[in-house]
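Listing 4. Sequential folding, example run.
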Amino acid sequence: MRARILPAAQVAVLAVAGVAILTINSASSANSANSANSAAGAARSPAESLFVEMGNVLQHPRCVNCHPAGDRPLQTDAGRLHEPMVVRGADGHGAPGMRCETCHHAQNFDPAHVPGNPQWHLAPIAMAWQGKTLTQICEQIKDPARNGGRSIAQIVRHLGEDSLVGWAWAPGAGRTPAPGTQKEFGALAKAWADAGAQCPP
């Protein structure tokens, strides 16, 4: 099980050799699983370690379900294929006659368990995260040819401020939100960028 992003009160930003890094103050760090992770993480750069922490959100079902490897969105924490059957379509907004906005409106409709956002759509297939390693996801995010032509600074703003990304923390009834908050995630992404935006090996 991946660790959660911890509340801001448990995250300290330190300056080490002029590079901002996040250190997680958690009692759980003493357990054996985290001890093994600590040994593996000792060889990582600060930026690489920060991106590993970002992976707790990026690889969460709230994100992966909209970044599928195929042409159908995924649903639930189990990543089941979307029902009713819908497909990506030419622009990621669904096929003619079955557009995303047909069912997904400006906000969640909890009585029917239908999520909502004014921008509701699938991520481009070039940004498919399902089945990818964290290193592969990092490389995709950094590549302007796949990320919509965004710079690292624009990626940081997208992750920390975009309302559709923000839906992951307010997904409505019956869905597990992404860990932490979007504000904390945006700060983590900025720290990663400021530390050199390196990808973990």
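-- end of first protein; second protein begins --
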Amino acid sequence: MPAISSNKPYRIGRSPTGLGLFATQPIKKGTRIIRYFGPLLDCDKEADDAIENKYLFQLSNRWTIDGSVRANVARYINHSCRPNAESDVKPRKRKVFIRAIKNIAPGDEINYDYGTDYFKEYLKPIGCKCVGCEKKRKKKRAEARAERQRLKIKAEKKALRQAEKLAKDRAKQARKARDKAGEARKQAGRKKLNGAHLNGHGSHKIHAVKSDISVRARGAQGRAR
């Protein structure tokens, strides 16, 4: 690991994506933090596969900086979709500086946006791991968990309502069945009563009662006294 002078406002340290560059002193917005340097590659002469690495920094259509050399401490600066620094490119001077675009506090990781081409080729396939994207993913995961919990509670409430409705329907059907059975018993009782005792055509007998009253016939010449 390259040595860094104690008067430099940064240090190499561990970050969520591996090694990174961290501020050791307050860095004001607009300050040039470090230079990104390395051998210059002539893209018109070099074969594409001969210069392929993830530390290439394109200055122009022709010139590219190969920042893979260990002395280039700026290569430890990681990408961020919400950076606190930016690349200040000087194509004519063939130089690149990393400049603060926000006030950076001691302990903060220094980062800048690597650009669309690098993002699509190297970061998008594996997923960007910058703080901003991690927060987005964490938020989405939390929202997904909350949505799954909401749907689960909704399904449980729906199942409970259906069970209650089913229980009420069964109870209602049971009451109807009992009422129907009771009405049938009443109807049967009324039919028996009407048929056996009220219409006069039952099997009961009429008994004659002996009387103590005697009747004597009066003759044509009977005496009346």
